[in-house]
Amino acid sequence: MFTGLIEEVGVIQDIRRGAKSCVLTIGCTDVLNGSRVGDSIAVNGVCLTVTAMGKGYYTADVMAETMNRSSLGRLSRGTAVNLERAMPADGRFGGHIVSGHIDGTGTVQSIEQDDNAVWYTVSAAPDLLRYIVEKGSITIDGISLTVACVDDSCFKVSIIPHTQQVTALRDRKIGDIVNLECDIIGKYVEKLLTQPLSENSPGHQQESCVTEEFLREYGFC
To answer: Max Cα separation, the chain?
Structure first.
């Protein structure tokens, strides 16, 4: 599990491509501290396993499913990437619950300066936008951000100078593809509301006790 707080901006040093997969070599320093082979490090929000390590770099395999669902297949040598190690049990939860499992991708539609902040407008498919709510959380390329507004075709986030300085978001341009992970809580709530529970036998179904009234009573609506 991750928090969406980027620890370091690494650089793609090498990409060995297979028929549908690839092996990334990522140059970095900070995220190597305390890490070992088998650990998880999120790359632009995608949870990848460390397969080898050396001085100032590590490697990770990217399977076909990840290539298809994320922007990692578009990486090239020299590309800056956001890196975050998996959250330790005694760590601070500064962002929000991030699984590192990308829901899909979006496209940067506009980038607008607003005093010391920068507004990013990102378009996304309807099946992703349904889980994105105003003032809710969204992960863009592994960065935990707050949604400022959303409609049926896109959403907006406002970025503070610090986020611009310490993440690879500063390199994104209009038309770039970004990885999106929606707030996982919304997806679980939807499944509980729409999929009846089964009991004892596959043919027996029980109506879910999680209703709209139940959610309102406990502050979820």
So the answer is: 61
